[in-house]
Amino acid sequence: MKHTAGIRAFGLHLRRLRQARKLTQYALADYADISRPTVQRIEKGETAASLDVLLALAHALDIPLRELVDAPGIDKLA
Amino acid sequence: MKHTAGIRAFGLHLRRLRQARKLTQYALADYADISRPTVQRIEKGETAASLDVLLALAHALDIPLRELVDAPGIDKLA
């Protein structure tokens, strides 16, 4: 999997967004209609979420997609 | 596949970004190190690109990821 640095940066960003709203991984997974292990793997940077999952997460967090992916360092080449 | 409206909106946006830079699908695929059929399916809204592919496309177009996904209508629920 390429762009691992960007994917890890996104995972950290997602975790911060979730925790800022005092949501558990279960709650976020439930709102986004995805599995909790998927949320866990995305937050750990182990999985590159697909656009439909990114859209589901943005809707669950009630933020625009561009904000969801605006993670510090995500555009760094690696 | 859920969020099909958002995925289609992204495909159109990607096509506009590519054409604005006078790039063929082949050229964009080459720069992003992905296959041309993948670019084609993404532009047609048939495939939900994963985060690593989105990052590769953003780098190929030399724009931040948040700009790449800032497609009109992408956040509409459907």
Describe the structure.
2 copies of one chain form a homodimer. With 78 residues, the first copy, chain A, is an all-alpha fold. Chain A has a single domain (4-63), classed as Orthogonal Bundle (434 Repressor (Amino-terminal Domain)). Chain A is 62% helix and 0% strand. Chain A contains 5 helices and no strands. The mean pLDDT of chain A is 95. The interface between A and B is medium-sized, with 27 and 27 residues.
The radius of gyration over CA of chain A amounts to 11 Å
Percent range of helical residues of chain A: 55-70%
CATH topology of chain A: 434 Repressor (Amino-terminal Domain)
Estimated share of beta-strand residues of chain A? under 5%
Q: Output the number of helix runs of chain A.
A: 5
Provide the CATH architecture of chain A: Orthogonal Bundle
Separation of the first and last Cα atoms of chain A: 11 Å
Name the average pLDDT of chain A.
95
Q: Tell the overall outline of chain A.
A: globular
Low-confidence stretches of chain A: none
CATH superfamily of chain A: lambda repressor-like DNA-binding domains
What's the arrangement of secondary structure elements?
Two copies of one chain form a homodimer.
Chain A: H1 4-20, H2 25-32, H3 36-43, H4 51-61, H5 65-68
Helix pairs in contact in A: 2-3, 2-4
In short:
The structure is a homodimer of 78-residue chains. Chain A has 78 residues and is an all-alpha fold. In chain A, 62% of the residues lie in helices and 0% in strands.
